[in-house]
Amino acid sequence: MSHTDLTDDVREVGAAVLATLATHIESVRTGAGEVVSADDIDTVAKRLELRRWVEEGGMTLPELLSFVTTYSDISASHHHPGYMGHQIAPSDTPGVVADLLQAMTNNIPLVYELAPAAAAVDRAVCRWMLDKVGWAETGIGAMTNGGTLGNLTALLAARSHADATAWREGTPGDLVVFAPATSHYSVRKAAAVMGLGERGVHALPTDELGRIDPAGLAPALAEARAQGKRPVAVVANGCATGTGLYDPIAEVAQFCESNGLWFHFDGAHGAAALLSPRLRGLLAGIERADSTVWDGHKMLRTSALCTGVLFREKRYLDTMFKQDASYLYRPEAEDVDPGQFTFETSKAPLGLKILLTLAYRGEDAMRAYVERQYALATELWELIQERGDFTAPYRPDSNILCFRYEPWGDRQLELRARLIQDGRFYLSSFQLNGRPYLRASLMSPTTDRQTLRELLEVIVELAAV
Predict the structure, then answer these.
(1) How many domains does the chain have?
(2) Among 377, 197, 341, 194, residue whose Cα is nearest residue 269
(3) Using H for helix, E for strand and C for coil, what is the string for 145-185?
(4) Are residues 208 and 280 in the same domain?
(5) What is the pLDDT of residues 292-310, one digit of tens each?
(6) Domain that holds residue 404
(7) What mean pLDDT do residues 382-398 have?
(8) pTM recorded for the entire structure
C-alpha cells in the first residue's frame, strides 16, 4: 500500500467507523438494547463470523462496518443507564482521541528520545496526580497498564525497601505483606509473583464490613514477628473493590509510621475523590502513605488501561528494577525515562488519556462526575431504606453498594443471572460475611434516580416469574 493509499484509507475507514460507533453510543445512552449479551461464546463467535475472517480475510468496508456494529451490540454497554456491573469507565471523547492519536503515532515512552511528546505528557500527568495526593515536592510516579501492575510495582519497591538484596538475590523466605481480606486480588497475585506466595499475605483484622480494624494492627504485627516474619508493607483500601468502602487511612498511616512499616494505599478506584473538596475527607491521611495507585479508567472516565503508580519519595526507587540496559537507560534521566521504574518496557503513553480529558473537559467536570456517581449510590441506598423487601448493610462511601432482595434469601446469584438474561440491567455480586449480595457499581452518567427505581422494580418483577 502506498503512502497516498494509506492516508486515503484512514480518512475513509476512520470517518465511517467513527460514525458507526457514534450511532451505537447514541442508541445505548437512551437505554436501547441489552446492557450485555447473554449469548455463550460459540454463539458470539458465529455472530461475528470469526472463523470466516480468520481463515479467509477479504473484509470490505461495508462488512467492516457490519462487524463494528455487531461487535458493539454484543459488548457490555458502559454508557447504558442499566450498566451497574463493574468499575470500568464509560469512556469519554478525549480518551478515544488519545487512543486514536497513539494508534497513528505508535510512540513508546520507554525512554524520552523514543517518544518526546508522550514522555512529557506522562510526566505532566504524574505530577498532577502527585500534587493531588500531596507529594508534588518529593514524589515521583509513572503510568502503567492497570492497578494490578501498579500494585505489583509499588510492592516491589516496598520489598526493596525491606530488603535491598531481594532484586538480585531473590526474595527471602521471611517476608510478608499485611492486607485486609477485602483487598483486591492483585495484592495476593503480586505477593505470589514476588516469591512470597499467596500465603505471604497476612490478613488483617477487620470490622463486619471488611474495613481494617486499627485495634488489630499491633497484635497482627506482634504475631508475625513472633513467627520470625519481616513485614514488606501494610496495604489499605480506598475504596475496597467489593463494597466501595474506605479503610481508616490516617490510623493505618500512624501505625506504620510508629513501627517503621511501608504503607501502600490502593486507591485504584477511590483516589478520584481527591478531586472533590466535599469527598476528599474520605482520603484523609493518604499523604502519609509511601505509595499508591490511581486508575484513570475508573472514575476519570478514560479508556482502559490507564494507571498512575505514585511514590512519596524519589529515593524509594534506588534499589528497585536495577536493569542492565545501557543502550536504553541513562542514570541522569530517571525523571524522563520512566522505563527505569515500571514493570513494562514497551507501553503506550497512557497519560495522554488523562491529559486530554483535563484539557478538553476540565478538572471541574471530572470532579462533578465523581460527586454525581458517589451521590447516586447514596440515592440507591435511600430508595432501599424506603422498602421492606430490600436491605443494604451500609451507607455507601463511594459509587458502589451491595444490597439484597430479601425474599430470595441466599439465591441472589440466581437473581443476578435472571437480570443478565433479561438484558435491561447488569449487576455484579459480592460475598460479604459469607452471604451473597447483589452489587451495583454506578459508572454510567446516564443512570439517574428513576433508573434506580426501575432497577428495584425489575428485580421484583423477575423474582416473581
Answers:
(1) 3
(2) 377
(3) CCHHHHHHHHHHHHHHHHCCCHHHHCCCCCEEEEEECCCCH
(4) yes
(5) 999 999 999 999 989 999 9
(6) 365-463
(7) 97
(8) 0.93
